[in-house]
Hints:
Keywords: Membrane, Transmembrane, Transmembrane helix. The chain has helices at about 5-30, 30-55, 65-70, 75-90, 95-120, 125-135, 155-170, 175-190, 195-220. The chain is mainly α.
Amino acid sequence: MTGRPALPAVLWALAQDTLVETVRALRRHPVAYGGLAVAVALLILFVDRPLALWLHGVPADERWFFRSINEVGRSGWMFGAAGLCLAVALVGGWRLWAVRAGFVIGAVLMGGWVVNVLKLAFARARPRLLVKDGTFDFHFFEISPDWNSFPSGHSQAIAGFGAALACIWPRFAWVFLGLAVLPAVARMVMLNHYAADVVAGYATGLTVTYALARACAARGIGPIKQGENR
């Protein structure tokens, strides 16, 4: 007797499909992602160091706004809010809202996995090391909180969250994506990350979220229609 596949199997298949769709996105838009790679490289070579040193010299009281939103990119509250929505939707039998909440959780989570792999692979020194002793380097494949600057996980999380909301309510897409920029920029202003880290993290959040949306749509459960070009 056959029936519906178990939920863990569906989620695992979606995770695999999302990675496939992420690679397809890179192939589908080679000019855009090639330009992004060049922009990130230029930031690393010519902008990150002088900008970080300049920001270090800006008085703390002049950065109060960015300090106040610096931790908005933490994924904990996103999982908490979406998880609460999911629980209420399941209890109430509201399938649409359950799918939406699950999609938000998946978008932030999947992007986080990708970013953590990249952090390990690149192992870039944090700006605090530049300020401390001039260290401005990549070690590659090193596990250390001082060497996991690239890409920015906070930027990925808030971008993924904003992109997920944009998929659900496309009419307000630019509002969600625009608001997500502010906490991402705060990570740079407060010297948690370099500019290149923030750009790469934000782009990762967008790419993985829309890849997940396409993977879900192919199974008829996502927030966008199958065949939409995202």
